[in-house]
Amino acid sequence: MKFVKILLVILVLLVAIFFIGGQFLPDSYNVTRMTTIKASDSVVYKNVVDFNDFLKWNPWTRMEPGASVKVTGEAGKPGHFYQWSGEDLGKGNMKLLEVKPYSAADFELMFEEPLESKAQCHFSFEKVSDGTQVTWNMQGQSNDALDKWMYLTMDNMLGKDFDSGLKNLKELLEKN
Length: 176
Prior knowledge:
Layout: H1 2-22, E1 28-37, H2 41-49, H3 51-57, H4 59-63, E2 68-72, E3 81-86, E4 90-100, E5 104-113, E6 117-128, E7 131-141, H5 145-151, H6 154-174
Antiparallel strand pairs: 1-7, 2-3, 3-4, 4-5, 5-6, 6-7
Helix pairs in contact: 1-5, 2-3
């Protein structure tokens, strides 16, 4: 009986730490990665804002090539839409919100499964002496305790995927 009481006290303390501690954690995350690609800003830009091209280099398509994908709308224009569904990737969509040709693009990401969340994605493109510097940024915000604990690992988790995606994009564009 004493063991059960101790176990119950430990369980209550862990739950309290989770919820009370969660109130002191940041309510947002911001992940940014960049690379320089030996290609013109127009070529790099097109491969980001056209979801048909995005599918060729983004790291998640490569994780589950058999996922169901649907691309609609005019490529590179606000409203261009990419929807996915897969066993490993879950379900969600990405919508192109705003473009500044050859310099920036903003997207809205909606994750539906396995967890619901919303994020903002931003790409910027800057001409540099040896090509185009691409910056990929993603931000999200929530007041949910579970989300806040997850945010502590977002830079490591997403950062690896961003690094992989930018490497894929660089390899794709520099071999042509």
